[in-house]
Structure formats: C-alpha cells, structure tokens
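INFO batch 0412 | record 1 of 1 | parsing
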Amino acid sequence: MRARAALRAEIGRTLRFAVVGASVTATYAAGYAGLRWLGTAPWAASALAFAMAIAWQYRAQTAWTFRAPSRAPGRARRFGVTVAAGLVVASAITGWIGPATGLSEAGAVAGVILWVPVQNYLIFRFWVYRDAVRAPADRVTR
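INFO prediction complete | emitting tokens
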C-alpha cells in the first residue's frame, strides 16, 4: 500500500509539474507577444517575458507542484541556480553539442525540449524542494 501511495504522489507531482511547465511557456509567449505589440524591442521583450515566466514558475511550482511553504531559507536561490543551469545546458546543446555531433538545429532544439524539463524536475524534486517532499504517505491525503 505504501508503495502505491508513493507512486501516486510522484505521478501527481509530475503531472502538476508538466501543467505548470505548459503554463510557463504560455506566459512567456503571451508576455513576449504583448510586449512586442506595445513596441518593445525584441531583446527587451524576451528578457521581460522570461522574467515574468520564471516568476510565475517559481510561485506555481512552489505552491501547486510541490505544495511547499512560500518561504524557505535558500529555496529561491536554489531555484535560480536550477533555472540558470537549464539555460546553460540549453545553450550548450544548441550551440555546441548539437553542431559538434552533426544534429540539425531542429534536432538540437528537440534535445533541449526533452532534456531540460527532466533535468529541472529532478533538481527541483531532490534539491530545491527537498524539504517539501515528505514521506509519500504524508503527501497523499485524497
């Protein structure tokens, strides 16, 4: 029974993570489009939309995906490091690994789309929100 509860908790957390990820993508796209419509330069629109999306991601992953208290020592810093690591890995895949291995640009982007969310989930799960992921039986209350 405990293993089933643990599996159910992990599946629920993973699905919530995916939903938040899709909403982060939508937040970025809408923010970028809106800022461009207002006449903002592309680089500035991208940076501002990215900041909006990351702020939303932090709130949603904290409150909904991992159901963690909103304030915990070091969590925001760990979250920022994780996001920065994702950016570094995405840039490495598209700018160096893809070209070095003969991947097309689309193939490299597909690699980023497949790799970075898994990387982020694992880092969030085992580092950023480690204090919030309690024993599975404690997490499943429904």
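INFO post-check: The CA atoms of residues 97 and 103 lie 8 Å apart.
INFO record closed
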